[in-house]
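Last lecture ended with a question: if I hand you only a sequence, what can you say about the shape of the protein? Today we answer it with a concrete record. The protein is MIP18 family-like domain-containing protein. Below, first the input exactly as provided, then the predicted structure, then a couple of comments.
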Amino acid sequence: MQIDEIDVFDAIRDVKDPEYPHTLQDLNVVFEEGIQVVQPNGQIPGVITVKITPTVKHCSLVSHISLCLRLRLVRYFGPQTMDQYKVDIFVTEGSHDQQDEVNKQMNDKERVAAAVEIPELMQLIEECIKELNV
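The predicted structure:
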């Protein structure tokens, strides 16, 4: 299955914000122009890049949002499809006070793997994506 930018946006736009009772699309955290997809080519995996714009420059939940997006993509497209893609999530240039640190943290495989092992964090993530149908 090939995924394009519209598919990715459709998958993530209705994810709920962990702080506010709105979707990430409603808050302009995710937007179509912030998504880029490079298709897999033989043994080379594809790349899905998502830029997010936090609601405030000091947002402390930006890494939580990135985990919500990652889990949503796997649930929406399935693990078999997502195994063909690398997912990179970055904050939009100039949108966060600790941009470089946050970008590194959101894309660190070991941190992501450790984070999904924390029951309280997974409960928060599940709350953000629970009402979404595949």
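Comments.
1. The helical segments are 5-12, 62-77, 79-82, 99-106, 109-115, 119-129.
2. The longest helix spans residues 62-77.
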